[in-house]
């Protein structure tokens, strides 16, 4: 019998367990634009030495923001995954919801936890009147891409990058 997955709003007490999951699942081949923009990566395939600290600082700074929905998945009171989402007012005047990050402990992957977390983020965005949902993912993060496509996401564009330093 599979244990119940409970998804709930992240609290300050959850920051360290969530940071631990982030550190476990963070992989240089999954780098996307946001890791570069936030200083978590220094180029394709090159994570910053501060990536985990930056992630933790972001959680602390944004946890209580009304425009951010941070959720954790628990099994038997143990945090096994997280999802971070944010709302943005567009130039056209509507609200879009970004699924900013998701992580599930390796030993809990393929148990419906990622799906439950993304669905929670989508529900949160719908309640906030988001017109649509966006996310980005590194090109090589194929297992995550399958999950996103299963949940109705489809590729919209490709971001090209060039390091001229």
Written account of the structure:
- 32% of the residues lie in helices and 27% in strands.
- It has 165 residues and is of the alpha+beta class.
- It has a single domain (5-150), classed as Gcn5-related N-acetyltransferase (GNAT) (Aminopeptidase), CATH 3.40.630.30.
- Strands 1-4-5-6-7 form a five-stranded mixed β-sheet. Strands 2-3 form a two-stranded antiparallel ribbon.
- α4 (113-127) links the parallel β6 and β7.
List the helices and strands and how they pair.
Blueprint: E1 5-9, H1 15-25, H2 33-37, E2 41-43, E3 46-47, H3 51-62, E4 68-75, E5 78-89, E6 95-104, H4 113-127, E7 132-135, H5 142-150
Parallel strand pairs: 6-7
Antiparallel strand pairs: 1-4, 2-3, 4-5, 5-6
Helix pairs in contact: 1-3
CATH architecture: 3-Layer(aba) Sandwich
Q: In CATH, what is the class?
A: Alpha Beta
Could you say what the CATH topology is called?
Aminopeptidase
Write the element-wise H/E pattern from the N-terminal end onward. EHHEEHEEEHEH
Number of strand segments:
7
Task: Write down the domain tally.
Answer: 1
Radius of gyration: 16 Å
Question: Into which percentage range does the β-strand content fall?
Answer: 25-35%
Query: Which structural category fits the helices and strands?
Result: alpha+beta
Query: What form results from the Cα inertia axes?
Result: globular
Helix % is 25-40%
Distance between the termini: 54 Å
Query: Which residue ranges are poorly predicted, with pLDDT under 50 across at least 5 consecutive positions?
Result: none
Mean pLDDT: 94
- Strand order, sheet with most strands: 1-4-5-6-7
Number of helices: 5
CATH superfamily heading: Gcn5-related N-acetyltransferase (GNAT)
């Amino acid at each position: 019998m599979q244990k119940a997955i409970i998804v709930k709003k992240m609290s300050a007490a959850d920051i360290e367990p969530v940071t631990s999951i982030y550190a476990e699942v963070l992989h240089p081949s999954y780098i996307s634009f946001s890791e570069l923009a936030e200083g978590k990566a220094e180029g394709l395939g090159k994570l910053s030495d501060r990536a985990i600290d930056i992630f933790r600082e972001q959680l602390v700074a944004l946890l209580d923001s009304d425009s951010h929905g941070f959720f954790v998945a628990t099994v038997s009171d143990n945090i096994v995954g997280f999802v971070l989402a944010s709302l943005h007012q567009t130039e056209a005047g509507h609200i879009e919801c970004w699924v900013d990050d998701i992580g599930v402990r390796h030993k809990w992957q393929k148990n419906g936890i990622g799906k439950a977390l993304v669905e929670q983020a989508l529900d949160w965005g719908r309640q906030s009147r988001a017109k649509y949902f966006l996310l980005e993912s590194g090109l090589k993060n194929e297992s995550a891409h399958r999950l996103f496509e299963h949940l109705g996401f489809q590729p919209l564009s490709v971001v090209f990058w060039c390091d001229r330093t």
